[in-house]
């Protein structure tokens, strides 16, 4: 049975220009060999190629889901947009029940989520639609709790979203922004419960700096060089805490950064920090976690005949490994939004370092991840290993070029060890990425740090010690699984609509 490893460099895109390109500025002999000496094709990771609207950058959730599914997966952003454009979302039974609860209890409707048009976790137009629907239903009081972005958008453009929302509120005559804080606190996914605690205490107890209006709150933070992602909890005049019998709607659609904040609100037995539990009517945009029982507006689509399922059916033992920041992506999202491992699937989680921001430790936990991968290869227990390196994306998000260079140099050293090890056992290496990031650390228009993902293509490389293969064409993430299936000689099912890019075996590498 053939062996392979699929290495996903999270946030590693292809860009020719050297300025602000951490990869081009780094010393990376192994990556240089892979990209220049092995068969490589560019892969599209954004817009319609991954089930998003045209021009919208990809992200880790979208990327891993497309890779694992082997087909273009219609994304939540598009599904929600379609429901809004058809004006059907207002008829959603769980949304109506939320509105009915608030009216019957004469309570407050709270809307909480990421105030952004990045389209990665949320979209401001979704918030506006819910706000308008609440008004049309006769809801009288709506408090908006704005989590500021600066990660999937420019670091200091949050004031623009505030102004946009304020104008809409004035236009329709309902709603007020009563709290703001950075996503760093409210949307942590790495079990940094001290961050979530600050956000929860803001929403429930009103603990934060007080401002007479939201514009002053944002601008004061900017003056202190604290930008959107890291804005500390602020209370705005007119604040009312989330209280018993209130309604709370979480308007983010992406799951991973909603799980912790929703755990605090929904689990009476939560004990990771001391807090008072409040009996509220909680509704989410999506099913953020299988164990959550609160209602949501959109249910998950179950994907069948996906890549890891086919590996399992064909007797391939598979290992998934990543550090905390990307563990959900290489497991839950790669498996089509399914929490449960397949029967022949083992998972290894390596804890991400406990630092405030990853520019302080750009190597993150890559060395420990590599050590565990090498042990797994030596054990000869696995036919397939699916590995994610988080560094290019997580360090790329800091906007610190020097740190991003250190990050990719660390990864290059790790790649050399892993690839030599797997090839010594005649295993084939496939290397790719889920989206771009660290290849553009400086915004070419503003000359400021660039912290968001990009729409640049990513590499897809094959490095087989046994044969010289040719990858052909310009592909998309959905083509990766069919390509590996071709290599493994596993038939591609009809449900998997991606295309194999493995066109030709040239010669044996030993010839």
- Helix percentage range: 25-40%
CATH class of the largest domain: Alpha Beta
Please tell me the overall pLDDT: 97
Largest sheet: 8 strands, mixed
CATH architecture of the largest domain: 3-Layer(aba) Sandwich
Low-confidence stretches: none
Number of helices: 17
What is the domain tally? 2
Q: By helix and strand content, what is the structural category?
A: alpha/beta
What's the Cα radius of gyration? 23 Å
Features of the shown structure:
eight-stranded mixed β-sheet; 19% strand; alpha/beta; 511 residues; globular; 2,3-Bisphosphoglycerate-independent phosphoglycerate mutase, substrate-binding domain; Alkaline Phosphatase, subunit A; 2 domains
Describe this structure in words.
The strands form three sheets. The chain has an eight-stranded mixed sheet with strand order 12-11-13-1-14-15-2-17, with helices on both faces. Strands 6-7-5-4-3-8-9-10 form an eight-stranded mixed sheet, with helices on both faces. The protein is 35% helix and 19% strand. The chain has 17 helices and 18 strands. It folds into two domains: 4-74 and 302-508, Alkaline Phosphatase, subunit A (3-Layer(aba) Sandwich), CATH 3.40.720; 77-298, BPG-independent phosphoglycerate mutase, domain B (2,3-Bisphosphoglycerate-independent phosphoglycerate mutase, substrate-binding domain). The chain has helices at residues 22-25, 29-37, 60-69, 76-85, 93-105, 124-137, 158-172, 183-186, 193-205, 214-223, 259-266, 307-313, 324-333, 366-379, 391-396, 401-424, 480-488; strands at residues 4-9, 39-44, 109-115, 142-148, 176-182, 209-211, 234-236, 247-250, 281-286, 296-298, 318-323, 345-350, 384-389, 428-432, 458-463, 467-471, 475-476, 502-508. The protein is an alpha/beta fold. The mean pLDDT is 97.
């Amino acid at each position: 049975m053939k062996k392979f490893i699929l290495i996903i460099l999270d946030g590693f895109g292809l860009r020719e220009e050297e300025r602000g390109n951490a990869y081009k500025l780094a010393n990376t002999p192994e990556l240089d060999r892979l990209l220049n000496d092995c068969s490589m094709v560019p892969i599209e990771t954004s817009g319609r190629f991954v089930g998003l609207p045209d021009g919208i950058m990809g992200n880790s959730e979208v990327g891993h889901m497309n890779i694992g599914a082997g087909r273009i997966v219609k994304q939540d952003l598009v599904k929600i947009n379609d429901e809004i454009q058809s004006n059907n979302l207002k008829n959603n039974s769980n949304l109506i029940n939320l509105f009915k609860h608030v009216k019957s209890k004469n309570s407050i409707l709270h809307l909480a989520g990421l105030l952004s048009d990045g389209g990665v976790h949320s979209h401001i137009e979704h918030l506006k639609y819910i706000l308008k629907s609440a008004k049309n239903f006769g809801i009288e009081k709506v408090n908006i709790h704005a989590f500021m972005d600066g990660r999937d958008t420019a670091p200091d453009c949050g004031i623009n979203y505030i102004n946009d929302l304020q104008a809409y509120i004035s236009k329709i005559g309902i709603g007020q922004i009563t709290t703001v804080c950075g996503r760093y606190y409210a949307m942590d996914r790495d079990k940094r419960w001290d961050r979530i605690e600050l956000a929860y205490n803001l929403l429930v107890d009103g603990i934060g700096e007080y401002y007479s209006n939201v514009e002053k709150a944002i601008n004061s933070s900017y003056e202190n060089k604290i930008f959107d992602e890291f804005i500390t909890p602020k209370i705005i005049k007119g604040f009312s805490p989330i209280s018993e019998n209130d309604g709370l709607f979480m308007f983010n659609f992406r799951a991973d950064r909603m799980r912790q904040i929703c755990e605090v609100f929904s689990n009476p037995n939560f004990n990771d920090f001391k807090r008072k539990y409040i009996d509220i009517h909680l509704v989410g945009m999506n099913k953020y976690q299988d164990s959550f029982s609160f209602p949501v507006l959109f249910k998950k689509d179950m994907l069948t005949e996906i890549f890891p399922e086919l590996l399992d059916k064909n007797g391939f033992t598979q290992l998934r490994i990543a550090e905390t920041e990307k563990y959900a992506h290489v497991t839950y999202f790669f498996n089509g939004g399914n929490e449960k491992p397949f029967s022949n699937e083992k998972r290894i989680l390596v804890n991400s370092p406990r630092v405030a921001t990853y520019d302080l430790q750009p190597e993150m936990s890559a060395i420990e991840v590599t050590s565990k991968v090498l042990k797994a290869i030596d054990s000869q227990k696995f036919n397939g290993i699916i590995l994610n390196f988080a560094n290019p994306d997580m360090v790329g998000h800091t906007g610190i070029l020097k740190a991003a260079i250190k990050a990719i140099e660390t990864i290059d050293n790790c790649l050399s060890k892993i690839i030599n090890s797997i090839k010594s056992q005649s295993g084939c290496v496939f290397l790719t990425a889920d989206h771009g990031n660290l290849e553009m650390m400086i915004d070419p228009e503003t000359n400021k740090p660039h912290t968001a993902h990009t729409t640049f293509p990513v590499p897809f490389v094959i490095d087989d010690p046994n044969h010289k293969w040719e990858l052909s064409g310009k592909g998309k993430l959905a083509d990766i699984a069919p390509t590996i299936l071709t290599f493994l000689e596993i038939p591609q099912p009809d449900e998997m609509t991606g295309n194999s890019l493995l066109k030709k075996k040239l010669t044996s590498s030993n010839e």
